[in-house]
Specification:
This protein is an alpha+beta fold and about 140 residues long. About 50% of the residues lie in helices and about 10% in strands. A hairpin with a 4-residue loop joins strand 2 (about 35) and strand 3. Helix 1 (about 5-20) packs parallel to helix 2, helix 1 (about 5-20) packs across helix 3 (about 85-100) and helix 2 crosses helix 3. It is globular. InterPro entries: IrrE_HExxH.
């Protein structure tokens, strides 16, 4: 894992801890995505996930389920879904990760393609990411 991705993952984990959410990274089969147990307020990340660049967004997404008040044990997927619960978690995950990613990047240097690529964020979230980045710089 490169230093930038590892730093972002650590920031998301710290964010989770600050919101009374536990986070554990364990080895699972490489095709098993992360999951969240909302009642236990616990996120489980897979440290054998084939694309570790996805881990910061995955962690933010699972954290968002708890913060959004979702219920149950939910497993992350990077596939498009019409589920309002998953869409709301994606939106909140972007609002968590965007300020961390762009904190030291001047607005004129902000690059949506780099952001999406660096964190392996699904392409179908690009419009939402652009809006979130714009809001970040409006309030920066």
């Amino acid at each position: 894992m490169n230093d930038h991705i590892e730093d972002l993952l650590n920031q998301v984990i710290d964010y989770a801890w600050d919101h009374n959410i536990g986070c554990s990274t364990i080895p699972l089969h490489e095709d098993q995505g992360p999951l969240v147990d909302t009642e236990a307020r616990l996120i489980i990340l897979n440290n054998k996930w084939p694309n570790e660049n996805e881990l910061p967004f995955q962690a933010a997404h699972e954290c968002a389920h708890i913060l959004n008040g979702d219920n149950g044990k939910l497993r992350y997927t990077n596939q498009y879904t019409k589920s309002r619960t998953e869409n709301d978690a994606n939106q909140r995950a972007l609002s968590i990760i965007v300020p961390m990613y762009f904190a030291d990047i001047p607005e004129e240097s902000a690059n949506i393609d780099q952001f999406m690529n660096d964190l392996a964020i699904p392409q179908w979230l690009e419009d939402s990411a652009v809006q979130c980045i714009e809001r970040f710089y409006e309030n920066y």
